[in-house]
């Protein structure tokens, strides 16, 4: 069979518009397409490939588990799931873990649990969920409704009710919205898809205090910001604010699909047998890979390395911007960075992405005005340097075409 990019247009649902090149192999932070062209990967599969492509330890974990046991269903438990859950609870605030296959599923579980908790503990009046404009929490109907981007949630008919939004980093607006009818507040401790927006520390602390005041659960969506991405194991650890429920996915599996919801014993008790579930969630293959990924990343040397590499990016991006003047600021933390475009280049983030691909660099966007980098947490310094050389050429080509 002749497999080319044109086959996509013949056989796939057209909800994606992938690049013209087709990657076929990856090692570390380098990827090769069908024609043997080498790309540097600053995209990381959208903050997923936290240890790059085909990390030998992950390949080993996958192969070893693949020769033992793939899938059981949750009629049984399994050793990799139990080991991973123990490590997650040992190294976070949480006491209980629920496994899913993705960030959206972990968020769906978190929202359902929050609603069930409030219903059973306080009554039917306590059902409001508050989230934030430009937030992103997944593509299921519940999670996309809670996400604060109409472009993703509109056009599918009636939405789940009692979901309201307010501006991120606006504590006064939040305080005006929250009440004793609020069951949960869902927020990203670093907004990803919405433009790589860091939270004001006073805002996060204020949200936590108001949740406590009104007996509302605080849910941190750490699907993108978690597992070392910000230089902390989870972003909440750098904010001195602890959520009641935390969701994690993306980097957790290092490229293998897995998600998890973390919470306390008291809250978890409201998911009794039969109230929620997942056929594949917690399967031994996913958990074996995730356990090895977690072990490697949960290392002070790796986490410190993320912070050092962030500075390498920032220093070189500042030099590029001194020359080309296309960015108003560099946002984000660790290996989740956003280059916010100036007004002169408003709405053109896709042009920078396409130009980067032409220069054999893989990157991302976060909305129409931000170019996003979410590379491997252990990307070699020389790949950062070479990738940014290619990025400067891409920037120069966009500037020249203006």
From TrEMBL:
<keyword id="KW-0808">Transferase</keyword>
<feature type="binding site">
    <location>
        <begin position="221"/>
        <end position="224"/>
    </location>
    <ligand>
        <name>pyridoxal 5'-phosphate</name>
    </ligand>
</feature>
<comment type="pathway">
    <text>Amino-acid biosynthesis; L-arginine biosynthesis; N(2)-acetyl-L-ornithine from L-glutamate: step 4/4.</text>
</comment>
<dbReference type="GO" id="GO:0030170">
    <property type="term" value="F:pyridoxal phosphate binding"/>
</dbReference>
<feature type="binding site">
    <location>
        <position position="139"/>
    </location>
    <ligand>
        <name>N(2)-acetyl-L-ornithine</name>
    </ligand>
</feature>
<keyword id="KW-0663">Pyridoxal phosphate</keyword>
<keyword id="KW-0028">Amino-acid biosynthesis</keyword>
<dbReference type="GO" id="GO:0042802">
    <property type="term" value="F:identical protein binding"/>
</dbReference>
<dbReference type="InterPro" id="IPR015422">
    <property type="entry name" value="PyrdxlP-dep_Trfase_small"/>
</dbReference>
<protein>
    <recommendedName>
        <fullName>Acetylornithine aminotransferase</fullName>
        <ecNumber>2.6.1.11</ecNumber>
    </recommendedName>
</protein>
<feature type="binding site">
    <location>
        <position position="278"/>
    </location>
    <ligand>
        <name>N(2)-acetyl-L-ornithine</name>
    </ligand>
</feature>
<keyword id="KW-0963">Cytoplasm</keyword>
<dbReference type="InterPro" id="IPR015421">
    <property type="entry name" value="PyrdxlP-dep_Trfase_major"/>
</dbReference>
<dbReference type="Pfam" id="PF00202">
    <property type="entry name" value="Aminotran_3"/>
</dbReference>
<keyword id="KW-0032">Aminotransferase</keyword>
<feature type="binding site">
    <location>
        <position position="279"/>
    </location>
    <ligand>
        <name>pyridoxal 5'-phosphate</name>
    </ligand>
</feature>
<dbReference type="GO" id="GO:0003992">
    <property type="term" value="F:N2-acetyl-L-ornithine:2-oxoglutarate 5-aminotransferase activity"/>
</dbReference>
<feature type="binding site">
    <location>
        <position position="136"/>
    </location>
    <ligand>
        <name>pyridoxal 5'-phosphate</name>
    </ligand>
</feature>
<comment type="similarity">
    <text>Belongs to the class-III pyridoxal-phosphate-dependent aminotransferase family. ArgD subfamily.</text>
</comment>
<dbReference type="GO" id="GO:0006526">
    <property type="term" value="P:L-arginine biosynthetic process"/>
</dbReference>
<dbReference type="InterPro" id="IPR015424">
    <property type="entry name" value="PyrdxlP-dep_Trfase"/>
</dbReference>
<feature type="modified residue" description="N6-(pyridoxal phosphate)lysine">
    <location>
        <position position="250"/>
    </location>
</feature>
<dbReference type="InterPro" id="IPR004636">
    <property type="entry name" value="AcOrn/SuccOrn_fam"/>
</dbReference>
<dbReference type="InterPro" id="IPR017652">
    <property type="entry name" value="Ac/SucOrn_transaminase_bac"/>
</dbReference>
<dbReference type="GO" id="GO:0005737">
    <property type="term" value="C:cytoplasm"/>
</dbReference>
<dbReference type="InterPro" id="IPR049704">
    <property type="entry name" value="Aminotrans_3_PPA_site"/>
</dbReference>
<dbReference type="InterPro" id="IPR050103">
    <property type="entry name" value="Class-III_PLP-dep_AT"/>
</dbReference>
<feature type="binding site">
    <location>
        <begin position="103"/>
        <end position="104"/>
    </location>
    <ligand>
        <name>pyridoxal 5'-phosphate</name>
    </ligand>
</feature>
<keyword id="KW-0055">Arginine biosynthesis</keyword>
<comment type="subunit">
    <text>Homodimer.</text>
</comment>
<dbReference type="InterPro" id="IPR005814">
    <property type="entry name" value="Aminotrans_3"/>
</dbReference>
């Amino acid at each position: 069979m002749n497999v080319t990019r044109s086959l996509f247009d013949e056989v796939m649902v057209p909800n994606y518009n992938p690049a013209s090149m087709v990657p076929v192999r990856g090692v570390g932070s380098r990827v090769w397409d069908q024609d043997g062209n080498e790309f540097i990967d600053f995209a990381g599969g959208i903050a997923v490939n936290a240890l790059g492509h085909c990390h030998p330890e992950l390949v080993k974990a996958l192969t070893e588990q693949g020769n033992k046991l793939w899938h059981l269903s949750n009629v049984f438990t399994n050793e990799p799931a139990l080991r991973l859950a123990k490590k997650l609870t040992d190294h976070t605030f949480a006491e209980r873990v629920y496994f899913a296959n993705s960030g959206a599923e972990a968020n769906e579980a978190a929202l359902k649990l929050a609603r069930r908790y409030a219903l059973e503990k306080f009554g039917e009046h306590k059902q409001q969920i508050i989230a934030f404009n430009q937030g992103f929490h997944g593509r299921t109907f519940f999670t996309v409704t809670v996400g604060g981007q109409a472009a993703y949630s509109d056009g599918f008919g009636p939405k789940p009710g009692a979901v309201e939004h307010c501006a991120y980093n606006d504590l006064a607006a939040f305080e005006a919205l929250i009440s004793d009818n609020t069951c949960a507040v869902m927020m990203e401790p670093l907004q990803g898809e919405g433009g790589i927006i860091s939270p004001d520390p006073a805002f996060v602390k204020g949200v936590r205090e108001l949740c406590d005041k009104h007996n509302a659960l605080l849910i941190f969506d750490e699907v993108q910001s978690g597992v070392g991405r910000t230089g902390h194991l989870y972003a909440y650890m750098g904010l001195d604010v602890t959520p009641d429920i935390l969701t994690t996915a993306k980097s957790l599996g290092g490229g293998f699909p897995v998600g998890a919801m973390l919470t306390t014993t008291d809250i978890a008790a409201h998911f009794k047998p039969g109230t929620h579930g997942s056929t594949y969630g917690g399967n031994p293959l996913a958990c074996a890979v995730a356990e090895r990924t977690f072990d490697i990343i949960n290392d002070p040397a790796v986490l410190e390395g993320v912070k050092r590499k962030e500075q390498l990016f920032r220093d070189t991006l500042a030099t590029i911007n001194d020359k080309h003047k296309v960015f108003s600021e560099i946002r984000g933390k660790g290996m989740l960075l956003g280059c916010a475009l100036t007004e002169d280049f408003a709405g053109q983030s896709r042009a920078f992405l396409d130009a980067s691909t032409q220069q054999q660099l893989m990157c991302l966007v976060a909305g129409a005005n931000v170019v996003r980098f979410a590379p491997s947490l252990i990307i070699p310094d020389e790949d950062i340097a070479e990738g940014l050389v290619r990025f400067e050429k891409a920037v120069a080509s966009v500037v020249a075409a203006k």
